[in-house]
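quick q for whoever's on today - can somebody do inverse folding on this one?? i tried earlier but teh output was garbage lol. tokens:
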């Protein structure tokens, strides 16, 4: 590379070779497929995808894609490569799975909180209603509960939080 630069042999003219060509110790051609996505000032980016996917696979994949989608593909590959290095077994699937578990746990918390609200409303309404109309109030509240798709309304007498 030094020889090329000092001899003025690089066709690209100004600027250093891209991070990919530098790592691969090859000449960076004017139409280098890596150059727009792997600038010389961020060598770690290409090193990571090279380590996980291999330079020739990255090259092949980029060549097969329309140019306007290559930027997104590179972002995706860098993300996946980093995830794969952190978690060699599951890669980014591990991250997705963990986020899905969090979503499930949070949905349960929301459902419990909604049930708690309905429970408290029911108790409040029943306490305020005259004893003769309590059955009517309770059945009308049950309809509301069904409409709000609350699945925990059966257990009105038990505290919902333990
Ligand atoms: Zn290059």
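ok took a stab at it. sequence:
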């Amino acid at each position: 590379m030094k020889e090329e630069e000092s001899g003025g042999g690089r066709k690209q003219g100004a600027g250093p070779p891209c991070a990919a060509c530098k790592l691969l110790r090859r000449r960076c051609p004017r139409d280098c497929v890596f150059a727009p996505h792997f600038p010389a000032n961020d060598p770690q980016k290409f090193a990571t995808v090279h380590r996980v996917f291999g330079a020739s696979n990255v090259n092949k994949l980029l060549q097969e894609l329309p140019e306007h989608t290559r930027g997104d593909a590179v972002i995706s590959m860098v993300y996946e490569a980093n995830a794969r290095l952190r978690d060699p077994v599951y890669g980014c699937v591990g991250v997705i799975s963990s986020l899905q578990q969090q979503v499930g746990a949070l949905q349960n918390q929301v459902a419990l909180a909604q049930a708690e609200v309905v429970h408290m409303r029911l108790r409040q309404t029943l306490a305020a209603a005259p004893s003769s109309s309590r059955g009517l109030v309770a059945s009308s509240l049950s309809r509301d509960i069904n409409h709000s798709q609350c699945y925990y309304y059966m257990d009105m007498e038990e505290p919902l939080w333990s």
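fwiw The pocket of zinc ion is lined by residues 17-18, 20-21, 28, 32, 34-35 (CB under 6 Å). also The longest helix spans residues 92-128. so keep that in mind when u check it
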